[in-house]
Each structure stands twice: as structure tokens, then as C-alpha cells.
Amino acid sequence: MEETAMNQTTEIPVEAVLRDELAHGDAALGTVAPILGHLVVSPDNTLFSDEIVAQVRGMASSVAGQMLGVQGREARDDNLPEFVEQHSEELVGHLLTNAGFLSHCHALSIERQLAQRLHDRSAIDLVLSPLLQALIASDDPDVSSNAMAVLTAQARFIQQQGRMELPLKELPGDLFHAAVLTWRTHAGEGLDEITAAAEMHLRAEYDEGASRLGLMSRLVAGLGNGAMAALSAAHAGVAIFLTALAAASQQDRDLAVQSTNDRQLGRLALALRAGGLKPNEVEEQFVVIHPNVALPDGFDLLRRDRAAEILAASSGLAAG
Length: 320
Fold this sequence. Notes:
This protein is mainly alpha-helical and 320 residues long.
């Protein structure tokens, strides 16, 4: 019995490999927000005009424009486009000082790139996956209705990302509140009644449960014991797969998205194993997401509970 207990707590070699890989990944995550923040707000981005930087800045501009638009309408400004343009740059700069907001925009960009890459390489549809198609055809009207809502929201997301837009109502609750607070703080003096009315309008239109992320969370939760089917990027589609991965591995969704980056291989392997996939099933997902990467020797010996323990101890869980 003592020997059994010792075997359960003794670290096997692959655990040390994955723990080290995760530590390197955490260190990389820690640099994302400050470096990206600097690049996005830099007045001279000629050396850093990559897609991610442009996408993040575009989404921040989109959020700022929506709040300023409501403010301008409440103020009955005669030239609304000019009002928005005049105040947008400063508000964008303030929004991008929020590491959580910046990281969320970054994660959305990564998600869109991953979806496009898997579409181009493996013909995985950007919107309608086999799992979603099956749920839409369900005899349960609630399941079918929610699946249709997810389909519509995902189609909008792909279109909006193409235009570098981020609807304010699509932000998670804490980031919506932070964005509105940032706007109110920097809205200017002597505008209390106008900003109060504008804020009331913004909050009245916000419903986190009706957002794309809220709808997908409800869809995955509703799968119950069938949620394991969502841990297949090819079967569930990238968006639902990432939502299911976050739920199954008890990580924030943005962090689950970050784990698909080629500098977060250890996190992805651990998350998939902690989420309940068998080692050979984890390998199948790597074939889809990282086809040129092999899992470390001995991964087939890694228990699910040990993967979850290693992942939970990661500083990246607080990195966001």
C-alpha cells in the first residue's frame, strides 16, 4: 500500500518536461501585454505592422468609437463623425493601458488566425462545424435554438474580425465594465448628465449571456456528458473547441486560446489531458493544430489528475 501511494506522488520524467515547458510558456505570456501594448500605441509602427497589432488596435478603435458615438448622440452633437474622430485616439490609448482588455483583443485575433489556418489546411469550416450542425438538427427546440444562435454569432464574429471590429456588447462582463469606466473617467468635465445618460444606454443594451462567448458557454455546458465531443477542433470547430477546452481544463478562455500558440505547447498538451482526453486523443488534436510537433516521450504515462495539478500551479492562470 505504501508503494502504491509513493507511485501516485512520484513525478515521472514527462511531468518535469511539461512543467519546464509550461514555465517557459508562462514567461512568454508575461511579456505579451506590455510588448503588444507598446507596439499598438507606438506612433511609428512601420517595423511592427503585422496583422495582430493592426487587429488589436482596430478592435480598440471600434470599442472607443461605439462609446463616443453614444456620448455624441446624447450630447446632440451636430457632427457626430467628427466628434468621434476628435476624441477616439485618446480614448483608444487609455483602453489599451488595461492589460485584460489588451489580452482579450489579442486572444480574439489569435482565435481568428487559428480558425483561418485550420480552414486553409484542413478545410475546417470557420462557422458551421459537424457538431454544431448536429445540434441545430436536434429534436430538442432549446438545443436547436441555442445552436442556431451560436451559428449566427460565430458568422458575425468572422465578419467583424475581417473588418477589425469588436462590438462593445461582445466583451466579457468585467471588460465591458472596465471599458465603460475608462470612457467615463476620460469623458471630459462638465458632462455628468450626458455621460450618465449615455452609460445608462450602454448598460441597458448589454447582455453577457447573449454574447457569442456567453452562447457558446451555454452550448458546451448543455452538452453534459457529451461535452468531450467538443474537445475536437475538427468536429466542434475552433470556437466551440476553445470554449470546451477552457471549461474542461478550468482555465480562462483567453488563456485557452493563448495555449494554441506555438510557444505554449506544454500548456495545450496539459490542458487537453486535464480536460479528459486520453494521450492518443491529445496526439490527434496536435496533429490538427500543430502537425509538425510530437508529444514528449512518456506522455502516454501522464495521468489526468497530474496534468490538472501541474496546470493549476501555473502562474499563467493568473496572467490573462
